[in-house]
Every structure is written in structure tokens, then in C-alpha cells.
Amino acid sequence: MAAAPLQPQGGLSNPNPTLCSPSHKPPDPQLDPVVSEIFDLIRDIKDPEHPHTLEELNVVSEDCITVRRHTFCQNRVAASNTQQTDSSSQTSVETKSTLPSGITNKTEEEEEEELWIKLVFTPTVPHCSLATLIGLCLRVKLERCLEARFKLDIVVSEGAHAIEGDVNKQINDKERVAAAMENPGLREMVEECIKEAEY
Amino acid sequence: EFECISSLEGHENEVKSASFSPSGSYLATCSRDKSVWIWEVVEEGEEYECASVLHHHTQDVKKVVWHPHQELLASASYDDTIKMYREDDDDWICCGSLEGHQSTVWSIDFDASGDRLVSCSADKTSKSGETANLVGGGGAGDENVWRCVCTLSGYHQRDVYDVSWSKCSGLLATACGDNVLRIFKEAHSSDVNCVSWHPSDPSLLATCSDDSCVRIWRLTTS
Questions:
Q1: Region Disordered: start and end of each range (chain A) (predicted)?
Q2: Domain residue spans of chain A
Q3: How would DSSP label each residue in A84-119?
């Protein structure tokens, strides 16, 4: 990414982070299962600086995730073959297509659900230069592993960073995110942080 | 069959947008490297010479668009501003900076006349502005000032990535990160106070306005 430097300058920005023990309590039945699913994907992401997870460092928690369900109707033109169906010829397209005779064109209204997720994370110190990297790790992990249609906004918790406006802007600009992941050095750091622990 | 006839180098990272000027004499490009480059088109489009490298934006430049009739260029940036450029004595200068968006300006477009400009932003709004020449009658490039006349807010739920102003119908289309395409029509010359669909004809709509007009609209879909 262009703005904030992503390598700590000479030493850790927070040599003694406060740790919290990972929550081993049984899942709260009131909690939205989607929130649990999202948290399970991000809790073990490693902090770029310390040998601890984001959960252990209280950078993320279940409370930091809010999900809004967004339903909308998508008009789809589905081809239904009145003869023997060859599954490979069945297409669902959103534009008109010319079909051979014997096939009827039917407009279906499908209700689609999309999750609009907001993730608020708290870097360990306000001047943490790795906030953008953490934001990037969160986004890449979810975009790779969450099986759902979603929109994702990741923000630094208010007051938790000196330049939170700058950080938030970067980590939510999809072109900046794509550019960051094309940077081999950054990509390597992200992959290292999000890779699953080997048991 | 397309053949690559030229490769222009200079930008330091991704080139986001490229656009030919209305006369075809210039090509403008912009990049995440914060710069706007203007290339002079020579040898019938076979050769390009760098005419200017402009560093007026302080962040990534997302889009460049030319005025439909004049050699006036507009650029949109991550720095939340829109800048205008024109040629002055063999050199390109920045002749305006439009500020008002609260976040990245993703795109811009001129209307058919070039007297109006529309922009769209990560702040979830689209703004339109118009220009009035203050000095001389030499066209939009003279000491002109652009002022924002309209902000469309409350429609888009996420970043508005692109906007296009139809040169034939005057309709405005926006592309948004909430998966929706929106078409806007300027219906009146003042506040539109009421809108109502016909109860049984799905193509009829009525509006009334402070401009003292009542208008009936028919939607045609092919």
C-alpha cells in the first residue's frame, strides 16, 4: 500500500502487549451463527509483530463483528428446456439470449441474501504501523474462506489509532487492497499471518 | 484483428485510466503513482510524446476524462478532489481544484455541452457542478470556476464507482458497490416535491415541482 510504512522501524512498536486468554466458553446460543463463523475464521490470525493471535491480543472479539442481512430481488432469465434436459446446456443468464425453438424463456425473481459485515479491530497501540497490515489480513482471510455473498467493511476502533481515517480508507479501497496483495513482500507477510497453524 | 502499435512508459505503478482528447491530439493517462500524464499524439496515432507530467494530486488518481469539445482535462483522485487542466503557453497547468467530496472521487463525466460535470465518490454521493466563465469568452478553459449545484445523497449504500452522463438523453447512470445500477433523470428546474405511480399502468409516473410544473412520465423498457 502506498501510505503507511508496514515494517516496524527498529524494534517492536509494542514490546509488551496485554494478552487475554482465548475464550473457551460454550458458544452463546443467542449469538448469530454467522458472527461465530466469521470470528472462527479471524480469531487465529497471527499478529504480525508478536507470536500471538489477534484473539489473544484482544485485537478482535465476537463483539467487534456486526452483520446486517441484505435481501434483494435479482431478475434472472432462466432457460427451461421442454425436451430432454441436457444439464450442460442449461444456462442462467441475466441478459436475453436467443434460444432454439422448443425452449421457453421464463423470468424468475430470486431473492438473494447478502451479508453486510462490519468488523472493528483494535490494534495493540495507537501508533501501531501495522494496523493496515492487520486490516489486510482480516480482509484476505474472509474473502478466501467465508462462503457467502458479502460486503465487508473493516475499521479501526474509534480513538484506537492516530491516523485511523487514513488506515480505514486504505483497507476499504479495493484497488489499494489488490495493489497491496500484488506486492510480494506484503503478500508474504499476509500469508504468514493467516496461514492455519500446523498441528 | 488488433495489433499493439505502441507502449507508453513512465508511470510507476498501475495506470487506472486513459482517454483521448476530443480532437485526438492528446492522450491523458493517470495512475496510483499520483500523477497525470499528457501525451501528444503524433504520426497518426503511431507515436506518442510526453507533453506533461502533472503532480497536482496528493494521492492515487483514479480517472481522467476530457471535456467533450475542448482540450480541458478533468481528473478524479483518492485525495478527495477533482482537478482540471488546460494548456497554457505550450505547458499544461492545473486550472482548478474541485473540493467537496468527503472521500475518494472514483469517477467523473461531462454532460453533452461540457458546461456541467458529474462526479461520484466513496462518500456514497454523486455531485454535479457547473461552470461559469469569469474572464473572457474563450471557453471553459479560461479562468473558470466550477461550483457544485447538486448532491445526490441517500441513494447509494456503498462506494459509487462510476458515473456516466448520456450525451444523447441527458440521463445520468451510476455504478455502485451495493450491486445496483441507478438511472437519474433531471425532471424539473426546481425542487421536486411529489412523485406518484399510476395505480394500474406500470409505465406512468407523475411529478410536481416548485418550478410550477406538473409532469407526466412514461417509462419505456425494451
A1: 1-32, 78-108
A2: 33-72+112-194, 74-110
A3: S--GGG--EESS-----TTEEEEEEEEEEEEEEEEE
